[in-house]
Amino acid sequence: RALRKKKRPPPEGWPAASPAGRQPVAGLYYTTGEAATSMTRGELESANTMAVEVGRMVAARTAKDAFKATERRLCAIPDLREKLKDDEDELEKVRRNGLKERSYSVPRFGIKLPPEEIMEAVVIDLEAAISATKHELEAVEKALASIQDDPYYLAVDGKYIQRLTDNEIAEKIHCDPVTVRRNRKNLVQRVAVRLYGAYAVK
Predict the structure, then answer these.
(1) Are residues 36 and 173 in contact, defined by beta-carbon separation less than 8 angstroms?
(2) Torsions phi, psi for 64 (to 5 deg)
(3) CA distance 16 to 42
């Protein structure tokens, strides 16, 4: 006799299942057909914020994981900034000019929709991506601000954001590369505590 797997309940505040008349887009729901209401901007931003925070906390259960996760998030800052600009530009073009023919195909969403609903779905998709990226950038940049007054701040900003070598950083702050690496480790640990709290404390 086959055993049935128990479904895990969704996080608090999330829908237990796809609501009637709603279809999933980028993990969210938007209304199709004759359904009464669609996801509001506030609901969209709240869902994105919850998803990002849950994912980050699950990924950083120990101090070591928190440190490594912090380094990954710092490394991602330049690319996230570019991604945010690209998505904002794309959203502006879609709103101004509509969708180019075949630029967003139906198989992308896995369901057959009329053009106006594909347009709505694409806008929601882009808004979700922009909201999540903004939330991540704001969180990491706020944590970085806590160490900006440190004389070795460039050891962090230089490596992860400006993408300089340790020798280049050492030359700029007049020390040796070993000192750069030692102070960077201390500063990244401080940023990790800002991002993950007690999880980052050894």
Answers:
(1) no
(2) -65, -45
(3) 19
Q: How far apart are CA 202 and CA 183, in angstroms?
A: 18
CB atoms within 10 A of CB 13: 9
- DSSP annotation of 108 reads G
Q: pTM (2 decimals)?
A: 0.65
Which residue has tokens 């007054």? 149
Name the phi and psi angles at 20, rounded to 5. -60, 130
Cβ atoms of 77 and 137 closer than 8 Å = yes
- pLDDT tens-place string over residues 92-113: 999 988 877 555 554 555 666 6
> Helix, strand or coil for residue 28?
strand
| Alpha helices (H) in 7-148, listed in sequence order | 41-58, 63-97, 115-145
How many other C-beta atoms can be found within 10 angstroms of the C-beta atom of residue 195?
22
With residue 111 as reference, give the H or E element that holds it.
none
Point out which residues pair with 28 in neighbouring strands: 25
User: What sign does the dihedral 4-8-10-12 (CA atoms) show?
Assistant: positive
Please write the tens of the pLDDT for every residue from 2-37: 555 555 555 555 455 545 444 444 444 444 444 434
